[in-house]
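[agent] plan:
  1. take the single chain provided in the ticket
  2. run structure prediction with default settings
  3. attach structure tokens to the ticket
  4. add a short note for the reviewer (M.T.)
[agent] executing step 1
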Amino acid sequence: MDMNVTTLDGKASGKIALSDAVFGLEPRTDILQRMVRYQLAKRRAGTHDVKNRSEISRTGAKMYKQKGTGRARHSTAKAPQFRGGGRAFGPTPRDHGFDLPKKVRALALKHALSAKRASDQLIVMDDLALKEAKTSSMRGKLKKLGLENALFIAGAEVDSNFAMAARNIPNTDVLPVQGINVYDILRREKLVLSKAAVEALEARFK
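[agent] step 2 finished; step 3 output follows
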């Protein structure tokens, strides 16, 4: 399928042929959901922790004698039912990540790209580069293009001026093509690819 290519100034810059195998699939929400869950689980710190009865700094001596008090039998005050005791079945540090087959991850990225293409939220630009790293200039260009919430994917390297100009603009992310991922694609309204990014993605899935 052919798609129009524009410049940052909003001018036409020819057309580009997009691969149906990468940008022309019928989007499957189940695969996208699996991938987003996978990414969010992987990035969880998993550092939540509480002290159980073995970690509480209290005496381990028996609270009072076993018989003759008329009260229940207890050993140490570290037990969870006592104030200041350890917590029972509380969270401990762990890895929340889980495995997802490599082929499913690759397929999810294709479906995310195809979903943006199917909903007319995909834009291909000739190049993502600026002569000066000025946020005001960048904001004006984005406003002219109607890009208020967008993810920009450059080639193998991100132009430093473009990255610096965009980093203070809300709801705008810039990534190299190696960092493209399903979660960031779906969390932004528009997906803007450079021609170099399109070529790299199609080469990646050959």
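[agent] step 4 note for reviewer: The chain has two domains: 2-45+97-204, 50-90.
[agent] ticket updated
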